[in-house]
Amino acid sequence: MDHYTVIDKDLTSRPHRMRDVDGRAFLASLRTTAVTRVEAGERVAQVSRNMGVSRSSVYEWLRQARSGPEKLQASPLQGRPSALSPDGLHDLATALLAGPESAGLTGRLWTRELVNELVTRDHGVSLTLTSIGRLLRSLGLWPRHSLVTWPDGSARLWKQRYAYIKEKAREQDALLMRGGLVDVSALLPRSSFPAAPFGFHLAYALIPGGPLLFRAYSGPANAATFLDFAAGLVAETGRPTCLITAHHPVFDLDECARGLAGLPLTVWVRTDGDARSLRPAPAPATASAPDLRPAVLGG
């Protein structure tokens, strides 16, 4: 799984035009990780949800792996070179995992504009937002779906639920956003020694066709890091916010729901065409505090 490889050592004298990193290598790592997890016993549906890829993609990668493991590897490098050297990408990845404030920048969450500010300051390269997106993709720090369209709205149940969510957001004068929580396995680039594997997870929120807000955290996703992201999202938007996200096991933790209770943020977790809002589990009823909830809770 050679995610980042120096193609020609002589090119290291030109640190801003390296051709050794692109999204193809990341996809190769993604394919290999998905196949390995399924072969280790995880269900395809679970791998699909946790890694943010479609089930059909996972089945296709399994088919390719059966015909030969080399089918999962990156195709020959093509297209424009990366703007940063492996050392530069290593330093950028480290800074992104630490967060904007640790890098001396203003903001709780990253945006492409803020990443560009970091790259310009630390690496002397000013890039377009498209190029910044390309850099983030090469590091795995990018949602693996369209930034323009909403989730599939063809299912009748989802259309009804989305209309309900949209009306709730309007009543609360809340900003409606799409987001996600995705575990990622990738390789940390470095030119002076072999690439080192590392794991992280990406929490993000966006307005389709609008800005992308994200944070990357080391290790697997957990309730504490999602709550940190949630607090940052509320601070950045400055208003009540409604976030629609795909399912992730973290959202099943009551700790996560309890932490959101004090924030002006409603998280709707979408599963199989429907969606549910995160709410803390009710305390068990006692003789002094009987359960007076109605038999059926709406919404």
Automatic annotation (TrEMBL):
Signal sequence bounds: none
From the UniProt entry, list the residue stretches annotated as the region Disordered: 279-299
Task: Please note every region of biased composition (Low complexity).
Answer: 279-292
Tell me, what's a Pfam family for it?
HTH_29
Classify the source by domain of life. Bacteria
From the Swiss-Prot or TrEMBL record, give the protein name.
Uncharacterized protein
